[in-house]
Amino acid sequence: MKSFVRDVISTEKNEKKLRKDKRMRACFFTAALLSSSAIAVIVIFISMKGITPFLQEGVDFFSFLFGTTWRKDQGIYGVGFIIVNTLVSSFGALLLSFPLSVLTALFITKIAPKKLSAMMTTVIELLASIPSVVYGVFASGTITLLVSTLAAQFGLVTAGGSSLLAVILLLAIMIFPTITSLSITAIRAVDKDVELGSLALGATRTQTNFKVVLTSAKSGIFAGAILGLGRAFGEATAVAMVAGNKMFGPTFNLFDTTRTLTTTMLSGLKETTGLDYDIRFSAGLVLMAVILLSNLILNLVKKKVGNMK
Amino acid sequence: MNAETIFHVDHLDLFYGDKQALKQIKMDIKRNKITALIGPSGCGKSTFLRCLNRMNDLVDGCKVSGTIELDGNDIHSTQMNVVDLRTKVGMVFQKANPFPMSIYDNIAYGPRCQGIKSKKILDEIVEQSLTKAALWEEVKDRLQESAFGLSGGQQQRLCIARAIAMEPEVILMDEPTSALDPISTSKIEEMAMELKKDYTIIIVTHNMQQAARVSDETAFFLMGEMVEFDETKKIFQQPSDKRTEDYITGRFG
Fold first, then answer.
1. How far is the alpha carbon of A208 from chain B, nearest alpha carbon, in Å?
2. What share of chain A has pLDDT > 90, as a percent?
3. Is A243 exposed, middle or buried (0-12, 13-18, 19+ CB in 10 A)?
4. Do A306 and B101 touch (CB under 8 A)?
5. Is residue A309 part of a domain?
6. Residue A42 sits in the same domain as residue A68
7. Residue A71 maps to a domain
8. Residue-wise pLDDT tens digits, A123-135
9. What is the average per-residue pLDDT within A214-224?
10. A1 in a domain, yes or no?
């Protein structure tokens, strides 16, 4: 028999390739180290800047963390109500967006005809790629109008529509594509056999979708929720355009103005120095802690849902 | 049709798009027997099996014509709804497909879908079904644990228990042991022989010894046709068709 492959194989070359493997491993490691050290550097920098107001500028940590007023003109920096506002607006947005996103994802993956499904997937991806400042101008032009009209129905007056409700609606729209597209990916990855198994037991399409498909996809769906929540927590530009930056709180009234951690950090950042500048890093530190805790809570919720014990 | 017959199939044609996958199938499947469907890959035996609980409805471009009667009722008629049919005709798949839930919830799934909520009744269904599937002793202390923690063979028996929980008349098995080791396989075979007292079993298998060991009747499929259908003993000892003989003696397929 004529040999084609045997003659080409050279031990020397293969040894070279194995050495290359080792070099490549070092490459991967360096890349991973670089990216993760960036995170470490950010955390360390923010932390160091963030604690200076308490160590050097005489701000009381307790009254900072639980304070209900933020007035730079009086030098009062209380972030407590802002934490509550941030949680209310972000979880409010999640509450609105999550069910809508999951149902949309189910529709796109399981119910819509192929063409419509492909079209809608593209639309969702487009939505995800719109810059937040564009969402912001949209919100300040339309959502505020909607909110002030709605408020007028109840005989209320808003600050030109800038309000907690406007922030929640804006964030809900902004995180919708994130949660939806991750849910779509998760649902598409569900083993077809599991779905067939459910149908073969006489479960209807709807029962199958809710009890089996969503349960199987819940990991990915919750990853979407966590990313979406992260986006809601972290959004500054667009939120600043409709929040109204109230100086005290917390705000629970949907038609009242509000202030979130991000807008607090952002507004007037470039025109200030000293304590008013440094304290924004403290707010950033708090924001990171809030996000971390929220992710933990969502992960706990994930374990509880879907009968998985 | 006599009382012995549970499935009466006549002039059954099936097309996937333009391709004909089943040609004029005619079969009377007997109650409380194990019927084996054998034949080379792509011969239509699995397709035929999926006609019996209308799983082919889920395949795009699949067209079925002809008669399939379950207990004398046409399963394609408007009076028969597909959910009812599938509760009567359960199915076990080639690859064990437990749901991402606890062992308990896997078994309780079907009954719950039919609206059974009582914990007491569900407890009883779970125990009874697992016992029938010869799994109760192995899992009774870990019912609340994930079904994914079970071995492959246990998962497949769980899927059988899940089908049994619906109290079906027929259990369709699509190569249920092809991914299992010989010990797990023999457990499932033993169970099948036990189960036929209460249910009719129709099993697709690539394993000719398995067909010979467990089944009462065997049908040989080839290129979308049912070549021969008779008592298993007869098929394996004196097949009347030359093609059947060639296949079971390993001359092709």
1. 9
2. 75
3. buried
4. yes
5. no
6. no
7. yes
8. 999 999 999 999 9
9. 92
10. no
Average pLDDT of the residues in B179-193: 92
A66-77: per-residue pLDDT in tens?
989 998 888 889
Residues A45 and A69 in one domain: no
List, for residues A146-204, the tens digit of each pLDDT value: 999 999 999 888 888 899 999 999 999 999 999 999 999 999 999 999 999 999 999 99
Do A28 and A157 share a domain, yes or no? no
Q: CB contact, 8 Å: A111 with chain B? A: no
Same domain, A188 and A219: yes
Residue A2 falls within a domain, yes or no? no
Domain holding A282, by residue range, is 63-304
Cβ separation of A211 and B109 shorter than 8 Å? yes
* Token reading at B216: 């009462």
Residue A212, chain B, CB below 8 Å: the answer is yes
Same domain, A81 and A169: yes
pLDDT at A303 over 60: yes
Closest CA to B180 of B58, B96, B248, B79: B96
pLDDT at B253 over 70: no
Burial state string for B172-200 with b = 16 or more CB within 10 A and e = fewer than 16: bbbbbbeebeeebbbbbbebbeebbeebb
Cα A173 from Cα A171, distance rounded (Å): 5
> Is A42 in the same domain as A127?
no
Supply B81's token pair. Answer: 């709804």
Chain B contacts of A211, Cβ < 8 Å?
99, 109, 113
Among residues 167-226 of chain B, which lie with CB inside 8 Å of chain A? none
The rounded Cα B31 to chain-centroid distance in angstroms is: 13
- CB distance B97–A191 less than 8 Å? yes
Count the Cβ atoms, other than its own, within 10 Å of residue B86: 22
Q: What is the CATH number of the domain that holds A214?
A: 1.10.3720.10
Q: Which domains does chain B have, with CATH numbers?
A: 5-248 (3.40.50.300)
The string of pLDDT tens digits covering residues A9-36 is 899 999 999 999 999 999 999 999 999 9
Written as six digits, the tokens of A131 are 């810059």
| A22 shares a domain with A94 | no
Of A193, A196, A207, the CB nearest to B113: A207
Q: Read off the pLDDT of each residue in A240-262 and give the average, rounded to a whole number.
A: 90
How many domains in chain A? 2
Helix and strand numbers (H, E) in chain B are: 10, 10
